[in-house]
Specification:
alpha+beta, two-stranded antiparallel ribbon, 3 helices
Length: 70
């Protein structure tokens, strides 16, 4: 069974490590109890994050919750 808050903590840790940002600057804004989350990464520009995620093969089109995958 899920442990309360463990997935959110791991998500924050992972994104902080990935972006080179301190954990206290990564905040789950929405979706704390959901599989889909909205996360604020303070101190990182949108351009830098888009570049990082594209490098990892994660483009916004394919992974958008509103995308139909086509």
């Amino acid at each position: 069974p899920p442990v309360e808050g463990a997935a959110n903590k791991e998500c924050v840790r992972f994104l902080a490590d990935l972006t080179g940002t301190a954990k206290h600057r990564v905040v789950v804004l929405h979706g704390e109890r959901s599989r889909n989350k909205v996360v604020l990464i303070q101190g990182a520009s949108a351009e830098r994050l888009i570049e990082l995620f594209r490098t990892l093969g994660l483009d916004e089109e394919r992974h958008s919750p509103t995308s139909n995958g086509s």
